[in-house]
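Reading group handout, session on sequence-to-structure problems. Before we discuss, look at one worked example. The prompt was deliberately terse, the way you'd type it at a terminal:

> structure Fibrinogen gamma chain

The input record follows.
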Amino acid sequence: MLLFRAKSLLYTKSLLLFFISSTLAYSLPSLDISCSPDPEFGQYCPTTCGIADYLQKYKPEADRELSFLENTLNQISNLTTGAHEKGIYIKESSLSGRKSAPQEVYLRKSNTMLEDILRFEKSIISQESQMYELQDLLRANDQRMVQLKQMAAQLEQRCQEPCKDTVTIQEITGKDCQEVANKGAKVSGLYFIKPTNAKQPFLVYCEIDINGNGWTVIQKRQDGSVNFTKNWIQYREGFGYLSPTGNSEFWLGNEKIHLLSTQASVPYILRMELKDWNGQTKNADYAMFKVGPEADMYRLTYAYYFGGDAGDAFDGHDFGEDPSDKYFTSHNGMQFSTPDTDNDKYLGNCAQQDGSGWWMNRCHAAHLNGKYYQSGVYTAEDAQPTGFDNGIIWVTWHDRWYSLKETTMKVIPINRINVAGGQQHGVKDFGGLGDI
Ligand SMILES: [Ca+2]
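And the output record:
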């Protein structure tokens, strides 16, 4: 708005100046002529004097107006100058702003770097403590290494010394422990025997009593020191430890038991010697005990229950759950099963469920290779994850939730049984036959 007014005033001033100057150019020569005012001015063509008078009359006012215009123009000019200066200032500011822009970038970068440095510093501090820990570990490992090297050196030295075998193995041999006893062996201990069909002798623990009875021991449990969860090959070859004092747990091995029990002309008695956690002992004997060849999965057979105060658990047991209980828990005629070889009569795998190798049916009433429980009575909770009765069981003495403390399975030729210990059955039939 101001600019518009200034422009219009400027325009007016220019016009007036032009008009005045052009008019004065004609009137100046006759300024000294006295002119008579003509009230009729305007009705006629004005004379030179009339025009001059008229100008004289209105000049002061025009001067004032011109002066006003001049002031206004000066003001506008001043404002314009101010605006221009401001413009220059803004421009310069803008330029200087632009010039300072890179500095801001550097500042930002600097801040970022500072943050990074702080972050790295924190990281370094935390890593430093980790490094200290690792250094400690390294030192401990170094010390351990030194100790191990010392131990290795000591062992190496000991290995160079002559080997001293502290296990006494008796010199007498035979086809079984009874023959060993018949040959004059008087003490229990480790002997090499070679059954008729065995390709080579193998070590057994012979239990020889004062009457000259020689029991060949095929299984021993006494403290749970040996894990009886083994596979087919381990049960075939045998596992555990044979000790000259007889105080160790083992399974002689199915192949050896097979070779031992199937010798021609020697009918064997299998005796189960059992001890519970009250220290009470009982036994159960089976006549004509045999274990078949591996081709028949080491099948168990016997002619009959020969006697004993522990009861005939091998014949199965009526648990009162199903009429077929007894039939499906009997063991005579069962093949051997291990967790990895299922030869049982059960849809599932008894040996796998119970973690043992045994002549499983569906599954058992006798189970002397079961899990060792330290206090006798155990529960389905204890038998997790399967929850089945998997202890060392002889149900005709203690029920299936009672695990026996000690067991020994041993064989002897049946003709020795009359002097090996009084039995309820078969004593008369087989007694007095003499040594074989
Ligand atoms: Ca099965």
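Points for discussion. First: The CA atoms of residues 104 and 202 lie 93 Å apart. Second: Residues 2-160 form one domain.
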